[in-house]
Amino acid sequence: GDSVTQMEGPVTLSEEAFLTINCTYTATGYPSLFWYVQYPGEGLQLLLKATKADDKGSNKGFEATYRKETTSFHLEKGSVQVSDSAVYFCALSDQGNAGKSTFGDGTTLTVKP
Amino acid sequence: DAGITQSPRYKITETGRQVTLMCHQTWSHSYMFWYRQDLGHGLRLIYYSAAADITDKGEVPDGYVVSRSKTENFPLTLESATRSQTSVYFCASSEGGTKYNEQFFGPGTRLTVL
User: Fold this and answer.
1) Contact pairs from chain A to chain B, CB under 8 Å
2) B101 → closest Cβ in A32, A104, A105
3) For A30, which DSSP code?
4) Contact B94 A89 (CB under 8 A)
5) 3-class DSSP string for chain B
6) Is the model's pLDDT at A96 over the cut of 90?
7) Per residue in A27-67, pLDDT tens?
8) Mind telling me how many Å the CA of B54 is from chain A's nearest CA?
9) b or e along A69-105 (b: 16 or more beta carbons within 10 Å of the residue's beta carbon)?
10) pLDDT tens digits for A15-33?
């Protein structure tokens, strides 16, 4: 079945540092890939997505590129801010999977001033 | 208000009591989901629904019951609450029908079972 493996946390960075959170996946088809973010006390919200190989999703300075050859979708940001402190989830959705998504376990990011 | 809402936001109950968590969405999305989030376990799917009157079990359905008589509502019932069901519960919806299937999450219900 489908699975998502993401970098274990927690990750602690100083403000303006470079962020990478690794995500790899296993899927039988050609899935869409997502990064969701969860701020403290809130539900998850979509951060960015990519629907086919070599697509780059981007939002709020975050980027991730759909790499079919390495089955990866790593999240990057060039300069993190304190307000980026949150839990980040990598996920995939495979057509024909009854609308369900498969989520990684989440990576907690803390950014210190 | 447009979007997906959950009620109550916080609930404390006792072991053995029945509890119902409500979820309402205004987009007429076909798919709806219930997840629980526990430290060390990420998100786990409890039940999902592809349309009104169509529901199916997820990864951890034991002890839970769902119904979906209307497209916009998807209540989750704990028939006899146990301490192991203390968790944060999230409802989500998705348009479905395409490969994109991004999900929209509610704000969550924090349930404590004493």
Assistant:
1) 68
2) A32
3) -
4) no
5) CCCEEEECCEEEECCCCCEEEEEEECCCCCEEEEEEEECCCEEEEEEEEEECCEEEECCCCCCEEECCCCCCECCEEECCCCHHHCEEEEEEEECCCCCCCCCEECCCEEEEEC
6) no
7) 987 899 999 999 998 999 999 999 999 999 999 999 999 99
8) 11
9) eebbbbbebeebeeebbbbbbbbbbbeebebbbbbbb
10) 999 999 999 999 987 899 9
3-state secondary structure B2-14: CCEEEECCEEEEC
Identify the burial level of B1 via C-beta atoms within 10 angstroms of its C-beta, where 0-12 means exposed, 13-18 middle and 19 or more buried.
Answer: exposed
Could you give the CA distance from residue A96 to residue B99 in angstroms, rounded to a whole number? 8
Kindly state the tokens that stand for B15: 């072991």
Scanning the structure block, which residue is given the tokens 């899935």? Answer: A31
Contact B39/A at CB under 8 A: no
Q: Which two tokens stand for residue B100?
A: 């994109």
Whole-Å CA distances, A101 to A38, A86, B10: 16, 20, 26
Chain A's closest residue to B42, CA to CA, is A105
Whether chain A has a CB inside 8 Å of the CB on B33: the answer is yes
- Is the CA virtual torsion A29, A34, A103, B70 positive or negative? negative
Smallest CA–CA separation between A5 and chain B, in Å? 12
